[in-house]
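Researcher: Sequence of prostaglandin G/H synthase follows. Predict its structure.
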Amino acid sequence: MAASLSSSSFIHPQLRHIVSKMTLFDTLLFFVIHFVDKLGFWHRLPVLLGLAYMGIRRHLHQRYNLLHVGGINGQKYETEEFSYRTADGKCNHPGDDIIGSQGTFFGRNMPPANSRYGLLDPHPTVVANKLLERNKFIDNGKQFNMIACSWIQFMIHDWIDHMEDTQQVELKAPDKIADGCPLKSFKFYKTKKVSTGSAYTKTGSLNTRTPWWDGSVIYGNNDDGMRKVRTFKDGRLRIAEDGLLEHDENGIPISGDIRNFWAGFSLLQALFVKEHNAVCDMLKENYPGFDDEKLYRHARLVTSAVLAKIHTIDWTVELLRTDTLLAGMRINWYGFLGKKIKDLFGHIGGPVLSGLVGLRRPRDHGVPYSLTEEFVSVYRMHSLLPEKFILRDIHSTASEYECPPVVEEVPMREMAGKDGEKRLSKVGMEQMLVSMGHQACGAIKLWNYPSWMRNLVPHDINGVDRPDQVDMAAMEIYRDRERGVARYNEFRRNLLMIPISSWEDLTDEEEVIEALHDVYGNDVEKLDLLIGLHAEKKIKGFAISETAFFIFLLIASRRLESDRFFTSNFNSRTYTERGLDWVNKTETLKDVIDRHFPGMTKKWMKCTSAFSVWDSEPNQTTYIPLYLRPAP
Ligand code: HEM
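Model: Prediction complete. C-alpha cells:
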C-alpha cells in the first residue's frame, strides 16, 4: 500500500524514491505536508494549522533525517553520581557516557552528497566574487540587532567546531578573476577525516566542542578549559574588575571558547559570567552548606538553562517573527498549556501539552545525540556581520528611547581579536551593549558577505592569530563541499522539500537569476547550499531561508529533548529549588541585562526584545489569543 502510494503522480517525481521507504502512516503524513508545500502556503495558515504542519514535518524529519555517524562505544554509568554537567560533556545520555562529549562525530541529517561535481566546480573564489562579495551593506531592518548577531556566534561556540587536519590545502583564484580577489591564493587546514565504521559514510569529522547546550562557551570543553575559567572559590568564574573578561599575558581573553573572538562576542561571555556568579551568590545565601564545587555545578546547570531558554523563547522568536513560530517556540519550552499551567501543575501530559523541557525521559528518536554537518552548514551566517561597528554616546542627554548619538564608526576588523579587546576595555560594557542594541545587523542575502572577512586573520583553537589569512567567503563554499554536505537541490529533496527546477523557482530577482546563470549555467543541481540559502525568497518575518528553518525545526527541539538536564533531571533535586526558580523567572535577555545593569533598558530600550533594534516600536498588544490568530 505504502509502495503504491509513493508512486502516485501526486508526489514530485524526485521525491518518490525517498517516500517509498516510509511506513504507510508516514506516507500519509507526507501527503499532507506535500500538498501544503505545493500550494506554498504553510506560513500563511492560521496559527493552529501552521503548528500542525510544523508538527508533522518535525515528526518526519525525526524519522528520516537523523543519521548516527561512528560506533557506539560508551559505557553504562550511574546517572545519580553525575547529576551535573561534566567538563567534557560526558555522562549526559542515561545509557552511554560518551554520547555528546567533546571529540565525538558530527552526525548527519541526510547521507553525504551524491554529487558528480568536483571540489572546485565552480571555483569557490568565483562563487565568492560573483555571488557573495558585499557591494553595499544590506541590513536586517529593525528586526535583528548586533546583540542578536553576536548571540548566535556565542551559541555556535557553545555547540560546534570541526577538528582540523595537520595538512593544509591551498586555494588559488583562477587568472580571469584573480585581480578581483582580496587574496589571490590562500592556505588553510583541511577538515580532519576520521574513519567511522558506518556503512553509508566511511569517514566523518569530529566536533571539538561539546554539542550539548551546556554553556561550554564560558565553561570550556574539557577539564583544562574548565580549570582556566574557575576561581575555585564559592563556585565563581574569573572576571576582571571592570566586569569584562580577564586576559592572559598575550592579551587573549580567558574564557571557555576563545577562537575568532571579537568585542561583541566576548561581551556576551562576560555578561554570562556575571550571570553565573550572581547565581553562585544566590545559592550560597540560600544553601550555606554548599562548597565551591557544589555551587559551581548548580550555577552551571542554571546558567546553561537560562541560555537555552533565552535562545528558544526570545532569540528564535525574533529571528522568525511570526505568530506561528512564537507559539511553536513557547510550546517547545512550556507546552501548549502554557507557562501558568506548567508553573502550577508541573509537567503533565507529554511534550505537546507541557513542552520538551521537563520530560520524564530524554528522547533521541533512536539516534544518539550529536549536532550535524548540515546544521553547521545552515548556520553559516557571516553576512550578519556589518562592515563597521557604530559606537554610541551613552552619556548624551538624549531623552528616553532616543537613539544615542554616534561617537565613531569603527571598522569591524578593529573590533576583532586583541585590538577589539583593547577597544572594549576602553569603551566598557555598558556603552558596548547599548551600541550593539542600536545597530541593525546584516541581512542573510547574496552580495552581503563582509568584505573584511575576505582577508581575515583566523585564530587557532587557542585564540592565537594564524600566519595565513583566509578568504572566508570562498573557504565556506569549499568547506561544505569538502565535508560532503549536499548541494542545495539535493539538500531540499532530502528534507522532503520540492526541489527547484529553474532559477525562477528560487527567486524573483532578475539580477540574481542572471548572476546564478553566469556562475552555474542552467544547472540548478550544481547550486551550492550556501548560495541557495542566501538567494531563496524569504518567508515574511523570517530572517533566514525556509530550507535552513526545516533543519532548525528538527535540531532546536533535539538540543532540548535529548539532554538529561533539560528533561528527566530538570527538577529541583538536580537544580535546587532556588536554582529552578531562577530559570523559571528568567524569560528573556532583557531580564538578564536588567539584573546586571539596572536602568539600562528602561532608558535606552523601547522595543520588546533586546534582540531587535532598541529604538524600534514595541510589539503591539493584540487581544486575540495566540492560538486563535488568523493567517498573517
Ligand atoms: C567577528 C566575528 C566572526 C569571526 C571572526 C568568525 C570567523 C570564523 C572562522 C575563521 C571560522 C572557521 C572557518 C573554517 O576554518 O572553516 C568560522 C566558522 C564558523 N562560523 Fe564564524 N566568525 C564570526 C562570527 C560568526 C557568526 C556571527 C556566525 C553566525 C552564525 C558564525 C558562524 C560560523 C559557523 C557556523 C562556522 C563553522 C564552524 C565549523 O566549521 O564547525 N560566525 N568563523
